Amino acid sequence: MLVALYGTLKVGHFNYERHLKGEMPTTALFAELPFEMYTNDDYPMLVPTANGERHRVWVEIFEVSEEQLRELDALEAPYGYWRESVLIESLGENVGIYVHAAPPPIGFTRVASGKWPP
After folding, report:
1. Chain centre distance of CA 115
2. Tens digits of residue pLDDT in 29-52
């Protein structure tokens, strides 16, 4: 399955080293998604936009096994993230992406660039 990652699971970040080390993204790009990015400086989150408005978000797309997907789901779930399927229009593909409920928690600020770290 394809999964779009935008935070600590990207190459070079701490969760990448723990969960995907040695894997390389099939592509990396800005995707127009119906989410906004927020951060508390330690990690980012995507929250759904109220009206489906799309924002640019920098993602690394990985092909992962079912086992890896279960591991990533288990990593994200305790922090209130769930995986949704979203169309990456420029690729013509649906991918999984981890999102968090809106509004973002107190202490998170919007990342206008859509790329973390900013």
Report:
1. 10
2. 999 999 999 999 999 999 999 898
**Residue ranges, the chain, pLDDT below 70:** none
Element (H, E) at 14: helix 14-19
Q: Which of 25, 30, 26 is nearest to 90 (CA)?
A: 30
Structural domains of the chain, ranges and CATH numbers in brackets: 2-110 (3.10.490.10)
Quote the distance between the C-alpha of residue 5 and its chain's center. Answer: 4
CB atoms within 10 A of CB 59: 26
Residue 78 DSSP one-character state: G
Q: What is the pTM of this model?
A: 0.96
Name the nearest CA neighbour of 35 among 117, 91, 106, 114: 114
What letter does residue 77 receive in the DSSP assignment? G
CB-based contacts of 34, cutoff 8 Å, min separation 6: 48, 49, 52, 53, 54, 55, 86
Cα atoms in the 13 Å half-sphere on the side-chain side of 78: 4
Residue 81 in tokens:
């993230």
